[in-house]
């Protein structure tokens, strides 16, 4: 996608229940804040305490089970990172909130800190309600249509980086290839979104520390359908590019060396000595020179053979 997300776009991570939608959004929030961007993570289901514990583990590389036990170390590492990172603010809003509640909180935060917010992560779209019209919660298509359009308009107006998440339906449980029919709720949010990324994992993959994402929709490139493997640290909940894993680098290096050794190498040697220029360059437009074939003809033996053939025919 040309190297990342663009401002003013609606980006959606789609996954089943427990697939790791919140983990992806939290990792994205950490990455953006470490890049020097002022970031806000808004959750409609996770408490601020749980979200803070996860993000502390991600930023300090301290396992989640040891975060509460090592508060002094966590505080020291967070203060050191603060000097070269942007602000990262966590906020819990009740389910059923609207885009107006999000705008109000962000505006209040900007006035209080006197800093413009660059990134907003909303966890997640399906738990919001539209502000423009009263819609029945049972009418998911209309509800998701209005909510997704309001989120995208907000991203365009404020020129922010915006990412959210959405559920996959039960038909996606046993699938390894996702498409638009696997999106829970209204398909209208997929039509409004600029990028939709499906999250795939299994029990075996989680035990090996692996995640896989699939591009279900993108307007920035032709990568629809492509899959990318990611590394997942079970202790710190950090999700990284698999190419940064030392073990994967070693494996990839060994694989390339084995491939190089198996490749057949051919060498063409000239039949003729050096050309007039004194080098071994071979002209590909000229074929090999064919030497003269020498033959000797003995007339007496040939006449004798012909006479024998004529005598056999007369008999």
Describe what this molecule looks like in 3D.
This protein has ten helices and nine strands. It is of the alpha/beta class and 315 residues long. The chain has a single domain (10-246), classed as Rossmann fold (3-Layer(aba) Sandwich), CATH 3.40.50.300. Strands 3-2-4-5-1-6-7-8-9 form a nine-stranded mixed sheet. Strand 8 and strand 9 form a beta hairpin. The chain is elongated. The mean pLDDT is 78.
Name of the CATH class: Alpha Beta
Integer average pLDDT: 78
Biggest beta sheet summary: 9 strands, mixed
Strand order of the largest sheet: 3-2-4-5-1-6-7-8-9
CATH topology (fold) name:
Rossmann fold
Helix content: 25-40%
Report Rg.
34 Å
CATH superfamily: P-loop containing nucleotide triphosphate hydrolases
Helix/strand structural class: alpha/beta
Integer count of domains: 1
Beta-strand content: 15-25%
Q: How many DSSP helices? A: 10
Uncertain runs with pLDDT below 50, 5 residues or more?
none
What is the name of the CATH architecture?
A: 3-Layer(aba) Sandwich
- Tell me the series of helices and strands, N- to C-terminal: EHEHHHEHEHEHEHEEEHH
In whole angstroms, the N-to-C terminal distance is: 93 Å
Dominant shape: elongated
The number of strands is: 9
Question: Which helices and strands, and how do they pair?
Answer:
Layout: E1 10-15, H1 21-34, E2 39-43, H2 48-60, H3 64-67, H4 71-82, E3 88-92, H5 99-113, E4 119-123, H6 140-158, E5 161-167, H7 188-192, E6 195-200, H8 203-207, E7 210-218, E8 227-232, E9 239-241, H9 246-262, H10 299-314
Parallel strand pairs: 1-5, 1-6, 2-3, 2-4, 4-5
Antiparallel strand pairs: 6-7, 7-8, 8-9
Helix pairs in contact: 1-2, 2-4
